[in-house]
Write a structure and sequence with these properties.
Helices cover about 20% and strands about 20% of the residues. By secondary structure, the chain is α+β, with helices and mostly antiparallel strands. The chain has a domain at about 5-40. The chain is rod-shaped and about 90 Å long. The termini are far apart. The structure holds zinc ion (ZN).
Length: about 120
């Protein structure tokens, strides 16, 4: 094993050669045994897994954006008489564009000219 470069030990100061390290291996000082350099084994693999996961999430979000084109519209009308959820269809220029999914009474703000007596 030929030394790839020389490095000084932070603990005892001995300058020594260390080889090119494989993933997950470490180099120790010949005199005191301190770790001179450590190479993590999963950095590239972890980065690849995270990249693939990110691509899958982005793909899933793009697919959802293309297939789920639902728009909720809130319509205020004076009377909802005859309107039934799931049964009443909404037409626009002769084309059915949706249906009524919810009917709620509107809460009106207190008007200043009106008395609640
Ligand atoms: Zn040392």
């Amino acid at each position: 094993m030929t030394p790839a470069r020389t490095i000084g030990c932070d603990s005892c100061g001995v300058v020594q050669g260390i080889p090119v390290l494989d993933d997950g291996k470490s180099a120790r000082c010949v005199r005191c045994g301190s770790v001179l350099e450590r190479r993590r084994g999963t950095s590239i693999r972890t980065a690849m897994v995270l990249s693939i996961a990110a691509l899958m999430i982005v793909g899933w979000l793009a697919l959802r954006a293309l297939t789920d084109r639902r728009i909720d519209i809130e319509l205020l009308v004076p009377s909802a008489q005859g309107v039934r959820t799931g049964d009443t269809h909404v037409d626009y220029k002769g084309l059915e564009i949706g249906s009524v999914s919810d009917i709620r009474p509107a809460i009106r703000p207190h008007s200043p000219g009106r008395s609640d007596k």
